[in-house]
Amino acid sequence: MRMALKNGQLYIIETDNVQYQIIKSWNMMRWNRQSKWLEGAATLELLNRVHAMTRLPDTIEAERQRLLSIQKAVDAERMNENPVAIYTYPVKVPLFAHQTRAANMSMYALGFMEPKGGDALCQQ
Predict the structure, then answer these.
(1) For the chain, what is the mean pLDDT?
(2) What is the C-alpha R_g of the chain?
(3) Long-range contacts of range 100-108, CB-CB < 8 Å, 24 or more positions apart?
(4) Cα–Cα distance for residue pair 37/2, rounded to 1 Å
(5) Are 37 and 64 in a shared domain?
(6) Domain count of the chain?
């Protein structure tokens, strides 16, 4: 099995029949008849499933690790009892704790901020 990651899309070619059936059963990738490959959005869930099947190339594994660190930062922020704004949000009134938490999580999830310190943030 060969794969490539380009513009947020994962492309997989040269799969055997068993691998193809397993990947198709996930309903996360579709078959491109013209190009004769499977393609789908490179989400953390998809990359984790492919990682469980086979070893990922270094560039794709780096992307999986990046998405994993973002997910860990979002989860850590979700459980944070006393959230502090990671950005000066353009609002007139002070935010409640749950609003600050949600704003911080969205900054990580949408890619406007990268998690600082990697796993150190997740150990709070």
Answers:
(1) 92
(2) 18
(3) 101/77, 104/77, 104/80, 105/74, 105/77, 105/78, 108/70, 108/73, 108/74, 108/77
(4) 10
(5) no
(6) 2
